[in-house]
């Protein structure tokens, strides 16, 4: 007789929980007497309000819900689930009340003991009050009534007991800049060369064209024939700036600089801004402007400000002007460091700043004169 082996029993568990969302809506029916005579079965409706992710409204039937003679002596209110605003079927607990406008006290007119299922086929529930009773009560004041509706939406969730979690594999950050950085170092695929003073730089023209519309025009546009063949000379670009420009093109970041406070590196950043403007590298231009704005001082603010007008750096110009305005006690050094033409440039630029008040500008210019 063959023996049968029993494997391990798989055991799971789950929990059913009910979550609720509560809301209250107040519907004021102004001009109550004007709504009388609207007709049986006709209603006025509140604005749609949302509870539990579902849209609801309150209807009021001044002349009864139906044309039956027995209903025409009643005023009816009706809680409605608005179609197209949420789930096909919703369970909710609710009540409908009349509010005394003088005392704020309310009278519950309808409060079912159990939750009700609302759906497109059965969208609402109603209460009745005899018209003579309503019109003789304190709930009708100033020819208006106030209906209050409290809704609690029930959301049932099935929650499985968590199994042993599998290890979540974290994707590493993008290494695209690293790969392109290696391509920059090896010059692999380079098919164009640039001569900047005594240094020669080689790069793939397709990479340059993809990052700069100016390079694209020079290497693939009408100027291509002039730039085909030998080395392209660049006479008005700083070698360090061009090297950093290539680094930014390949890696979308500037190369590391050990001392951004130093005059030499600050000058390189200015050359970088000029190169970024020349080759329409707007993000690189903003990066350079950000660095310069954080390194402003009395000695550098004038030359930096002059740079902003020449190369259309509006945000950097604003930073320079704001620095001048806030440089209390530094005006004597500013006067010694800046030519008269630069002061005039400051005045012109200051007028474009909404943050600078006229009296502040006058105070600065008086001290600079």
Short description:
With 369 residues, the protein is α+β, with helices and mostly antiparallel strands. It has helices spanning 32-35, 131-135, 176-186, 205-211, 213-220, 224-227, 239-251, 263-278, 282-294, 301-310, 314-326, 331-337, 340-350, 358-368; strands at 14-30, 44-45, 49-51, 54-61, 74-81, 89-99, 106-110, 116-119, 124-130, 144-160, 192-196, 199-203, 232-234.
Tally of individual domains: 3
Return the CATH topology of the largest domain. Answer: Apoptosis, Tumor Necrosis Factor Receptor Associated Protein 2, Chain A
Total helical segments: 14
CATH superfamily of the largest domain: Apoptosis, Tumor Necrosis Factor Receptor Associated Protein 2, Chain A
Outline: elongated
Largest β-sheet summary: 5 strands, antiparallel
Helix residue percentage? 25-40%
